[in-house]
Amino acid sequence: MTGGLAHSPASQPKRPSFPNFNVDTISKPSGSSRRASRSRTSLKLFDDPANAPFVDPFSDALDSEQAVRAAVSAHLETANARPQAAQQPPKAGGLGSGGATVPRSGNVAPPLLLSSSETDQFRGSSTVSRYALLAKVQRLCRPKDPDERGPAVCGCGRPGEGATHVNIHLRYGEQTGELRAGVSGIYRCGSPWLCPTCAPAKALKRAERVQAAATATFLRGGRAALVVLTAAHSMDMSLAEIKELVQGSSSAARKGRVWVKAVADYGILGVIVGQEVTFSLDNGWHYHQHLSILVDGPDADAYKRAKQAGEWIAKAYSEKVRDKDGEVSDRYGWHVRVARDAADASDYTAKGSMAWEVAGGYKDETKSAKSLTPWDIAVAASVGDKQMFAKWKEYEATMPGTRSCVVSAALAKKLGLTAEPQDDDDDNSEQLYHETDDVVGRVEAPVWSRWMRHGLASTFLLRVEYGGEAGFAGAVEQTEAESMEIESRWQARNAEREREHNEQQASHEADRLLRLAADDVKRHLHERGIGGQKHVHEVVERIAIDNPGTARLDPGRVLSAANSNERDKYYESLVADFAELGIYIA
């Protein structure tokens, strides 16, 4: 193993104490770590992805990423199986589910380079699944132009600014009991719509906001009406169109004098709106909203007023949809019920947070087998489905920046809650400083960056979960060997592409210069006579002087090209002359 590549505490008599910030890098800025990290990372976040090679998911099979990875897997021998790390039995969702809603390695081919025997026996945690999916999403979102800045998710998981290493952790999940590997000392993009590693935390924050508001409402004796709003959609409608129709109609229904009257009549404290997007293979994009309508109390009519408030909003929404020439079914276009408790209101409203785990829930599939989550679309696009690639790019352009489960300052004030920043956009990246708890080792920053670039972070984390602290050094060594093999193959592949490109460019330039010389010679054929060798050599010499970096033209080819063009024109003229006499030459 390369000297200094990684540090494994297993080889030391006593676990070292790692600092909780990068003492071996630039000094930590003063003030809030979140605020300070934002200001210092905004310009550096994309340095590594901008230089990373772009992977075309639609390239020929022999030239694709999958082919490169398969060749590496076949070439390298998998290390001997190490004893599996102690694994607590999960409390829900099966081994490694963790409430995760990314596609599991059981139903999606993961980009792992473990042997089949290893992957059959050990699937890893939800963290592994998320990093595997993150690699796919980053390749889908990364611009082809290396100078163009991509979305924030392209830089997620990279080492922090100036960091020399990242720390690797092993921890048990509080809810599931699964053993999870983790990484600190990296950037987090904070994207709630595009990033499979950041979205769970965003979904949890959304659910917590809704539950806090619902709890305060129930403590006042109030209730919460839960409403889902949708509209008729088809394959012909873009995501932007169906989103504007539903979102615009929903907002319009809660404005004006009629809304002010409804607020007074039903005792409405406020409305919290959650967003959800799926894609139907039959009917296209399905964008809909989950509303939590908080109604004040205390009185015996709170339940009744909550239901009436929900029905009022649903009907007002339907009218606005029809005003926009949209279609909505009075039977299926909306649904209203009253929440059982605050947790029910939170789960329902925040359930659309990118189908992530919310309050311990688990959702990795939609109700219909033909209905896909955005993560399903990303997986299909990453393996070459052109339709799904187009849908992902449409989703990528439409959903970021959409706010969800926002508790307004006015509602927070009514409920006596502290108004908190609603950091629910895609521009709140932050640097996570090194954590010290449960550290099993560390990896040098350039090495981790290369693993991220080649989609090997999930492979490594799976091996850490499989082998534990004792197998950390072996996991680093094996993953780095695979990384260098992939890097070597990528460099050879890119060099071959560059050579072919240069040859093609040279051929095009040679053809251009030949045409240029032939045209020049042709113009002087009759002046100097067919076969004017002196003029041909003059033209060739002049072009050679003006284009020193190209191969010298052959005078014979130049003269042949000029004579050929002249004969073609003579033949066309001859055919026209005979046609005038009524004689047609085939």
Task: Characterise this structure.
The protein is α+β, with helices and mostly antiparallel strands and about 575 residues long. It folds into three domains: about 200 residues, no CATH class; about 200 residues; about 80 residues. Helices cover about 45% and strands about 10% of the residues. It is built from 19 helices and eleven strands. The chain has a five-stranded antiparallel beta sheet, sandwiched between helices. Strands 1-11-2-3 form a four-stranded antiparallel beta sheet. A two-stranded antiparallel ribbon has the order 4-10. Helix 11 packs across helix 12. It starts with 5 loop residues before the first strand and ends in a 6-residue tail after the last helix. The N terminus is likely disordered.
